[in-house]
Design a protein that fits this description.
Chain lengths: 117, 114
């Protein structure tokens, strides 16, 4: 199947700093990518939909000024957690949508574990 | 609205035993159906998918799933479970227009005992 990479896999930062997470589709172009957050032993919570060349669409309750999303190319989306606080500590997973004539599948990155001290 | 139900939160099976994880969906049109597996601290890996055609779908790691339209189900099966299959399994429905993402079930945690 298609491959989605995510970097970094793990990051520890101090409260008040910003952290950028990159998501890349390695062998297909993705006009749409999604960012999820996952709490321990819970299902995925969709944070936002990232569209190449346009503004992201955020889910209700997700602060767009805190979680900045940029989808500058068909293979790269970034999530920046600004002024991070301990409550932002979580597992963040991106997903890229591979959509074509005979396919429509979301592939997921390996996730980023964010710890804010 | 679309929804996915995975009735079993946690299942424990013995190594070598057969496995069936249940998934029911609610969607007005013909759905695209998926099963993903997530090991602790990892992302989601696609096991298999159904778009159309043969209702019995083969996936990776020896898994298969059967689409039953009359029951709105897409159950995942494996004839002989290995200890490495212990993980969280998510059923999802997709193929929606626009930018609508997959709709996931809440997941089933599989434990494998010796």
């Amino acid at each position: 199947g298609a491959v989605v990479s995510q970097h970094p896999s793990r990051v520890i930062c101090k409260s008040g700093t910003s952290v950028k997470i990159e998501c890349r589709s390695l062998d297909f172009q993705a006009t749409t990518m999604f960012w999820y957050r996952q709490f321990p032993k819970k299902s995925l919570m969709l944070m936002a939909t990232s569209n190449e060349g346009s503004k992201a669409t955020y889910e209700q309750g997700v602060e767009k000024d805190k979680f900045l999303i940029n989808h500058a190319s068909l293979t790269l989306s970034t999530l920046t957690v600004t002024s991070a606080h301990p409550e932002d500590s979580s597992f963040y997973i991106c997903s890229a949508r591979d959509r074509g004539e005979s396919t429509d599948t979301q592939y997921f990155g390996p996730g980023t574990r964010l710890t804010v001290l | 609205a679309q929804s996915v139900t995975q009735p079993d939160i946690h299942i424990t099976v013995s190594e070598g035993a057969s496995l069936e994880l249940r998934c029911n969906y609610s969607y007005g049109a013909t759905p695209y159906l998926f099963w993903y597996v997530q090991s602790p601290g990892q992302g989601l890996q696609l096991l298999l998918k159904y778009f159309s055609g043969d209702t019995l779908v083969q996936g990776i790691k020896g898994f298969e799933a059967e689409f039953k339209r009359s029951q709105s189900s897409f159950n995942l099966r494996k004839p002989s479970v290995h200890w490495s299959d212990a993980a969280e399994y998510f059923c999802a429905v997709g193929g929606f227009s626009g930018n609508t993402p997959l709709v996931f079930g809440k997941g089933t945690r599989l434990s494998v005992i010796a």
